[in-house]
Design goal:
This protein has 687 residues and is of the alpha+beta class. The chain is 40% helix and 22% strand.
């Protein structure tokens, strides 16, 4: 009854979560209805564009002006800077950049459907644009004076591969911001900032602060087990030693201790919404990212005392629910700029999808932004193989299926051995139950006899656990790989329109109908039916409960996997099908029960025979020792008679009369035992 209640409870929990998902889906539907009515703006790829921006398409009145178009838009950053001019340029097949005269930064990165990216996407940077420049002192406070105000830059150059913005205070100071991009640079472009002191006096500039841009939560279907905030990160990679500051405590000094890469999630920003400043001895790169897209800023020069800051933000002026996001900054010391001198800093920026193959080609450990976690050693090769298979097959759905088959084939020998060992263990349940009964009160003796029993029959009781133990890291490695694989974003397969999302084939009474998780549960249930748990009388009560609990495992997987991406559920379903195939093939092999039946019966008969022989030989051995005979081999009748006569002299009537009453009594008992032994051995000789 208890197990039935547990099963019913799990199903109730599953349907409750489905109902909750249905409510969320209704909210999405209502949002879409409002958008269609004109209450909100939404791009074709479901990215949210602030109402203060013109759509990117409005920047391009015709194809000839694609790279050189200006417009005036209301800046969302500050009331003191109202005439923001945007310019779209440095376009290639992968993306185009939208520049702003505010701080000479990048307002948008428009990613195009090309290569492994299956859907357009806008990387928006409201507020402070990507790579906006400012100055601060060593305490982190903005410098006062001319450099503290928003600066309106002038575009002085814009050709096919270069764009230059410039801001200048006559005879004092000039900032030049140069952007270049090579034709074969995919999502990468180069930025150089040149600071020039035009005066005859040294110019104190403190620290140079550069904006890493923003990343916002992607609109996803409801998932109670996968918080969207965990994908919003500000991160870095440190290539130097820990900074030695006055305080040795890492928390109070803000330095890092040996952590090469760290990523701080939105929900780790604290109550203030700001990340504690992290001070790096030598930064390799810093980034801001969401689930599928990332900005990586990598300095080409070595900067010491590199600071990383981050904070939580909201999408401004959005008609929809608050859209969470993160933004980050980096800063490095400059101190003074000498008279009539210049200083330049160069950065390589990657603004694009979290594509492991593409990031790995860039080097400098930029692939770490995939955040594969402790199972990176599994996730990285799986991702590499997945992309190779996609190159051959042309479909990520087929690539996932073939990757699953490949992994299963690699593990096939181990799984087959475990299956055979499991069947062999089942065939030995009878003898093992007798052992348990025999040594019921002595657990130590029982364990010794069980190990001896396993060794005699060449059975490894733990062999059945290895496939499960190996599957756990593979499943987790696959999970971490698929959850942030931008290659799957927008990829369709069968009825799933997006492999990075639930397959969501229909909406039924407010519920999202996902077919793949249901197929996954059916295949797992059938797999368990092929390997039924043994429920014989030899099982203990605890084993019976565990066996019954295992019957509910498919329904537990339904609860957890129902909301995850169709790519992950597709992997699990194909793996179940492969396990079913392997089980059917293994079942065609000779049944170990038949093979071991005669062996077990023979062993049991031998055991009984030896038991009888051991009882007789033990008695005979005792009598042989009493008469001084060999414990093994045939009995020599002459030796028997001689030894008997010699020992019998010790108990003659003459000697017995010399003993007192107590000694005589003991001697008579020994004489009687000697006579019994003599007669017993004579009887054996007669046989």
């Amino acid at each position: 009854m208890k197990n039935i209640l547990i099963g019913v409870g799990m199903l109730v929990l599953a349907f409750y979560m489905l109902w909750e998902q249905g409510k969320k889906q209704q909210e999405f539907i209502e949002q879409d209805r409002l958008e269609d009515a004109g209450f909100a703006e939404k791009t074709n790829d479901s990215n949210i564009t602030p109402s203060s921006f013109e759509p990117a398409s409005s920047l391009v009145p015709n194809a000839d002006d694609l790279n050189r178009t200006e417009l005036t838009a209301l800046s969302p950053t500050t009331d003191s800077f109202k005439n923001e001019k945007l310019f779209e340029g440095l376009s290639n097949n992968f993306s185009s950049l939208v520049f702003t005269n505010y701080a000479g930064g990048v307002r948008e990165v428009n990613l195009k459907q090309f290569s492994r990216l299956s859907r357009d996407y806008k990387m928006l940077h409201p507020g402070e644009p990507l790579l906006s420049l400012s100055f601060e002192d060593e305490s982190g406070r903005k410098l006062i004076g001319d450099l503290s105000f928003p600066r309106e830059y002038k575009r002085v150059l814009s050709d096919g591969n270069s764009i230059v913005y410039q801001w200048e205070i006559a005879d004092k100071f000039r900032i030049e911001r140069r952007y270049t991009r090579e034709d074969n640079s995919t999502y990468v472009f180069t930025h150089k900032t040149v600071l020039t002191n035009l005066s005859s006096n040294p110019l104190p500039l403190g620290r140079v602060k550069l904006n890493l841009g923003s990343a916002f939560r992607m609109p996803r279907l409801y998932n109670p087990f996968d918080n969207a905030a965990t994908y919003l990160n500000v991160g870095y990679y440190n290539s130097g030693l820990p900074l030695a500051e006055g305080c040795s405590c890492a928390e109070c000094s803000g330095r890092i201790d040996g952590e090469k890469e760290e990523f701080f999630q939105l929900n780790e920003m604290g109550a203030t919404g700001e990340m504690e400043t992290k001070k790096l001895s030598q930064a390799k790169w810093a980034c801001v990212n969401n689930q599928f897209f990332v900005n990586i800023v990598r300095p080409l020069d070595d900067f010491a005392n590199f600071w990383i800051d981050g904070r939580s933000i909201k999408m401004p002026e959005s008609e929809q629910e608050d859209i969470e996001g993160v933004s980050g900054t980096i800063s490095f010391p400059l101190a003074y700029l000498g008279p009539k001198s210049s200083k330049e800093f160069t950065f390589r920026i990657y603004a694009g999808p979290k594509d492991y193959a593409g990031l790995a080609e860039l080097g400098h450990e930029q692939k770490k932004v995939m955040q594969f976690g402790v199972f990176w050693w599994i996730s990285e090769p799986l991702s590499w193989v997945l992309n190779k298979l996609h190159g051959f097959l042309g479909s990520y759905g087929l690539a996932i299926i073939f990757l699953t088959i490949l992994v299963k084939l690699i593990l096939w020998p181990l799984t087959a051995q475990a299956t055979r060992s499991q069947k062999k263990m089942q065939s030995l349940q009878g003898p093992m139950s007798k052992l348990r009964e025999k040594h019921k009160g002595n657990s130590q003796k029982l364990n010794q006899e069980m190990m001896k029993f396993y060794k005699e029959h060449k059975v490894n009781p733990f062999a059945g656990c290895w496939p499960i133990l190996i599957q756990i890291p593979i499943f987790l490695g696959m999970f971490w790989m698929l959850r942030s694989a931008a290659e799957l974003y927008g990829q369709s397969f069968l009825w799933a329109s997006d492999l990075s999302e639930q397959d969501h084939v229909a909406q039924v009474q407010g519920f999202s109908l996902n077919v793949l998780p249901i197929l996954m549960v059916i295949t797992q249930w059938f797999q368990m039916k092929l390997n039924p748990m043994q429920m014989g009388p030899e099982l203990s009560e605890a084993q019976r409960i565990n066996a019954k609990m295992m019957r509910f495992m498919p329904f537990m997987f339904l609860v957890f996997l129902y909301f995850f991406s169709s790519a992950l559920v597709l992997y699990w379903t194909v793996q179940n099908l492969m396990t079913i195939l392997q089980t059917l093939i293994t079942k065609k092999a000779p049944d170990p029960k038949d093979r071991f039946k005669e062996e077990i019966e023979s062993d049991q008969g031998t055991e009984e025979k030896n038991k009888t022989l051991n009882e007789i030989s033990e008695k005979e051995r005792t009598y042989r020792n009493l008469l001084g005979l060999k414990s093994r081999g045939p009995i020599d009748s002459k030796v028997l008679e001689n030894n008997y006569q010699e020992r019998a002299k010790n108990y003659s009537d003459a000697r017995l009369e010399e003993m007192n009453s107590s000694k005589r009594r003991v001697a008579l008992n020994k004489k009687q035992r000697l006579e019994q032994a003599h007669q017993f051995l004579l009887d054996i000789l007669k046989k």
